[in-house]
Amino acid sequence: MPTPLSERCLWHQTSAETPLDYPVLASHEEVDVCVMGGGITGLSTAMHLAEKDIKTTLLEAGDIPSGGSGRSVGLVNAGLWIPPDDIVAALGKENGERVNTILGGAPSKVFEIIERHAIQCDATRTGTLHLGHNAKGCQELARRRDQLQHRGAPVTLLEGEECERMTGTSQIHTALLDERAGTINPCGYTRGLARAAANSGATLYCHSAATGIERHGDRWRVMTEGGSVTANRVVMATNAYTEDGWNQVRQHFFTGHFFQLASEPLIGKAADAILPEKQGAWDTRTVLSSIRRDKEGRLILGSLGKGEGRPLSYLTHWADTIQNHYFPALGSVRWQYTWTGKVAFTPDHTLRIFEPAPGILSATGYNGRGITTGTVVGQGFAHYIAKGDDSLLPLPVSQPKPIKVRPLWSCAYEGGFSLYHAGQCLRVLI
Fold it and tell me: Cα–Cα distance between 363 and 369 in angstroms, integer?
């Protein structure tokens, strides 16, 4: 019997890294650093701090992972979403090129951690493909190629038959191959980071959501329902899943979503032709679509927007439309999993690294680049706490201005995503 479509995250079901049993905080602890949030940023921070023999406790509200870190597409991308020249225009030359350099090298950091800690996350290092879906998109890719090559990045613009061979579709005529990048099972990577952090000496607690924070002299006390942690420094690493009104992180991003569907494992010539070198891919649409395969041969399609709460028939219709457009030779595909994750967006598509209060650090606004950005931000936070030097962070620690009318940004984005997907389903925007 075919497996029906269900709302479950594929990565949680197929991760070779098994979830470890972390306790609930039920007492009071005195530490050097308290990290709030058990996603990639928080775990990378805790791991790098522990490696420096800095006593660290991490608090996670649910399981590891419970948020977007285990629910992403799993693309280990270099840089930010926008082209490097646009980053410089938004941030200025010094900070812009700092972001370009540090995040351009971030995939290597991710893969180094995977290798060093033997993290089982189905890592591939064959690059990623940015797909030009129309003439304007192809022009944009050529512009990105020129900007990236100018900075020494190993990128290649694929065209014609080579492009079709690498992508597996005749609907894409130009694709930008970035050899710095790759793919992972993001749940496996996050669980592996947790294991590495614990093995390095960090203390991890799950189902221990912070309920508040207060100043105690020159230290901070973080409260949970079952206990508390007093620390010299606090790192708020909750990003898009920040829900508490008592902290300032929510003021610096607005929430978006990204949904995905995964097919049953596919076999045969038509399936083998899709992304034969196992790159992950996404296209140049305003409301982008992502495409990748997993280790068992599933086709995974995704797009910006919220899948949760939508009829499964609607999601299936959307996935069928995209699949038939790009890969008609597959014929009818049975969809097995669907899931949604949150994304922290900013109006200028750049991240924020800041101190909400003295002794507290936070980062948000990864704009869909959480695997690499979260990893290097965690490393940078640990170095900053240990040495007082923020040079390993993509941006200096600062105090950015809160985003005005945040709810309107979220509504505008989600409304636009929904209209675009409706147009795709009606084959108006294919």
Answer: 13
